[in-house]
Structure formats: C-alpha cells, structure tokens
C-alpha cells in the first residue's frame, strides 16, 4: 500500500496559528535601523509557515519515518558498513563533560577529553598494528588524502619527488583514485585476476621507480581477502613505494588480522562505519590515520601526546604536513568510537568480524541459486552478485533495487565494483538476526521469480513508496530545493 501523500509545511500554514511561546524581552529594545544598513533590512515579512505546535511535531515526525535508516530497517549497503549504532555510545557522547566543552578551553580544563582521545589513538594503533595515530581527518576520503600527503612528504624528504604514481586496483573505491589525484599524484590502475584478487603479474609491471604507493582495501571491494598481500608488499617496498590501507572494510578483520602486520605503512579507519558512529545523514564522519614509525614525523600537527600524567599538544613538528582540520577531528564521533571499543573489548571486536563474515557467507549461499555469483568462493564481510541472467530477460539490477523498496529494505550497493557486470554488493553486518537475513533472502528470491514470470512488474517498481520511480537524471540535475509561493 502506497504511503499517503504528505503536504509541504507551507501548505499547512494558516494565518494566525502559533506553535511557540517566547519569553518577554528582558533587555532594552534597539531599533533595527540603529544596527543594520538600510539595504540589509527586510521590507516585508519573510513568509514563514504559521502552524500549531502539534502540526509541527506531526509534520517532522512523519518526514523522519520516510528516511530509511539502520534503526528502521535492514540496510545491506555493501562497502558502507551501515551497522547499528549502540545507544550507549549516544548516551556517553552526551555526558556534559564531553558535550559542553569548547575547543578553545585551556588544556588544563579538558584533560579528561584529551585522555579519551589519547586512549582512542592508542587503541586504534593497537587494532591496526600502527605506531602512531592522528584523529584529525574528518572522514574516510579526507583520511586517504592525509595519508597520501604524508607519503608525498616522505618521498620529497628523501629527494625522491619523482615518485608521482599511485597504484589503485580496478575494483577500488572511487575515492582512492580521486584522493591520489587531489594529492598531486597520477593514479595507475592494476587489474583484478580471475579469482577476484589483485593480478600480481600486472602489479609487477606497473610498479617501478616512479611508484609512490599502492592503495589497497583488504578484504577488497569484492569481499575477498587478498591472499598474496605479503608478496604485494614485498614488490612495492622493494621498488621504494609505500602501502596505503583503505579501512572501509575493516569490519571483516577486527581482532583477527592487522594491516600493519600485512606490510601496510599507512592506514585510515572509518569510525562512522567500523566503530559505530552515525553514518550518512546521521552525523559527521571521522577518518583517523595511523602510520608506521618512519612516517610519524609527517603526521598533521598538533599531535596529541602524553607527558607523564599530563596531556598536551605538540606543535613543534617541522616535518608535519600541517593541520588538516580545525581543532582535533570530530570529537563526538571519537567519543562514540571509544565507548564502542571499551564496551566490546578485544574478544568482542573479534566476534564482530566473525559474525559479520558468517552472516555474509550465509546470505550469499541462500542467494547463490537465484543470481549469478561471479566469484564462487568463501567471502568475508560482504559479497557481490551479478544480475547478468536477469538482464537477459530485460530486467536490470537497478530494477531489482527499486523493487526491493516495496519490501521495506534499503537496496544493496549496485553497479559497484564496476568490473562486475550488473553488480550488487551486499553487506549484512554482524548485528542482523538470522530471521532478518532469511526474510531479505526471500524477498530477493521472490524478485528473481518475478523477473521470470512478470518482468514488467519489476521494471515498473516501486509501488509502495511515497512516489513512483523518479526520472533519475532530472532528480539529480534539476532538483527543487526550496519552496516558492504560487509555484
């Protein structure tokens, strides 16, 4: 059943309705003409909606129910790790001692917050096998750029500024080549072999004296662990390059494997993915970066350090790449991540990955008979299916994703990685119950059967959402972003 149409709040407006009560002014009133130039003063009322408090509450509550989130339904968005955000993290982040402090307060007044951040740095260094961590970067792609800038500074300090190429697999996140370009490098593509892993022979071909780094996600975006990672590290290191680890898929290896032990020199983590900070529209990101010892001098400044029992900022860092974010990262997300790590403990973090891998393999085998499985082997925390067979019947992966909306599920990532035709990347995460996975699988199987029996139904979906299928080009290029009277 389609959801009822919702009016704009301007359409609810009636002259004279009031949804607020402001206290009487307790300071002398100053005429606006005394403080603003004439051209800055409105000549007419702004045209704000006039609604009651009840109308206001119902309107925005109704709007909130139309935004799909991990608290409202299954969200198998591959590579994005849309995992549940434990509410204890939210409670801790709202403690007055964390929520009401200000970045400009003297360090003597915020020692508790600095201790939390220092302990978080130490924990993330241990989890990843790095020697030092900075919490400054604001999100994953920002962490990528920060890591690459440190690699660039490292090579320049050694007199090897000619190293201007960053190797990126063809299945990499789109931010990888973009970050390399923004950092002043040229992105070079390395192919994927028939098993879904980096092609070692091609890697050897593209690695040379101009190689600055190899950017890699492990497990990769096909959900497969790079079995030859130690040999890949040897190839790149012998050529004088560095290994950069994209932490987007870290949820598969917590407590089991560490990038530092695999040979990586730089790591970024997504606290808003792996460590349960709110993701997407729910809150800001956080992309801490960890490095091995030879890259520590280039970490952004200031660096949070501990001197005996006192925490302070170290600004005297002549080789640092500079500050990459005002203050010291997104503090509220750091608090949430630290609460999660302390709540789970080492054993709990390992179970996170074990259950994430178990759920992904269970769901993959449930769906295997009904869709093409490009790489028929054990997956990690996510897996890819292909809608090639459905495409032959006139139904695209996009159609399948739209039909899933009718069942109340957020669709998986589609058409990524780009080296899998009609790709669907599915990541169930560790917290979903078997019943949820079974129900999602049944929905997918029903859609696969509909493709064979009544393909037009899938082609025309969705039917139960607020609006029918949108013109995607117009929606992206000519959105209506503000209300205009009499439009």
TrEMBL record:
Residues 353-459 form the Glycine dehydrogenase C-terminal domain. The lineage of its organism: Bacteria, Bacillati, Bacillota, Bacilli, Bacillales. Signal peptide: none annotated. InterPro entries: GcvPB (IPR023012), GDC-P_C (IPR049316), GDC-P_N (IPR049315), GDC_P (IPR020581), PyrdxlP-dep_Trfase (IPR015424), PyrdxlP-dep_Trfase_major (IPR015421), PyrdxlP-dep_Trfase_small (IPR015422). The glycine cleavage system catalyzes the degradation of glycine. The P protein binds the alpha-amino group of glycine through its pyridoxal phosphate cofactor; CO(2) is released and the remaining methylamine moiety is then transferred to the lipoamide cofactor of the H protein. It comes from Thalassorhabdus alkalitolerans. NCBIfam families: PRK04366.1. Its cofactor is pyridoxal 5'-phosphate. GO terms for molecular function: glycine dehydrogenase (decarboxylating) activity. This is Probable glycine dehydrogenase (decarboxylating) subunit 2. Belongs to the GcvP family. C-terminal subunit subfamily. Its EC number is 1.4.4.2. Keywords: Oxidoreductase, Pyridoxal phosphate. Residues 38-302 form the Glycine cleavage system P-protein N-terminal domain. It comes from the Bacteria. The glycine cleavage system is composed of four proteins: P, T, L and H. In this organism, the P 'protein' is a heterodimer of two subunits. Pfam families: GcvP2_C, GDC-P.
